[in-house]
Amino acid sequence: MRLTVLYFAAARDAAGSSRETLDVSAPCTVGDLRRQLSERYAPLARVLPRCRMAVNEELAADGDGVPEGAEVAVIPPVAGGAPRCRVIETPLSLDEVVAAVRAPGGGAVVTFEGDVRGDTKGRKVVRLEYEAYRSMAERTLARLASEIEREHGAAVAIAHRVGRLLPGEAAVVIACAAPHRAPAFRACEAAIERLKREVPIWKREVFEDGSVWVGLGA
Fold it and tell me: Which residues contact 121 (CB under 8 A, 6 or more apart)?
């Protein structure tokens, strides 16, 4: 079957053209097309893992099918100031992560904010102390965001704070945007669950009578 593929920005440079018509075997998924493009253009193979794909002007996950005659766009990360995955020491802004993923094709934006609780199991929390292997943490956040974007077809932005935080302050903010609400909700849930499992950020809870590193017990 025949498809039209559009390339933008860094993807256009890597492919050497802004659009082309390709004949591919049917059935074809977005993931199949991504692999074929990686094999076709070696420079593009280095860019594609960070790109989203849109089919007929709607963001698509790798498992989505590509219909005959479709127009497929290869969309690199957009420019918009700060990177979409950050570990920072200053107060977080939910508006900033929303702005990082908001786009004309996104009909749904789902957000998550994780705040410091004032107590844990009946013990009053004085503060939390977050520590990170910062360079690795930001690379890991970028990787999992890219994987979630490909799996769910939703743009992902994450910011996590480190240092001393008081009860009520935000420790993490996440925004996910997709054409429809279901993939945006799934992407947001996947982002916080994977962040807690995979990203090298540690949390010490400080109480009035002691402290504990979360995960190691009292």
Answer: none
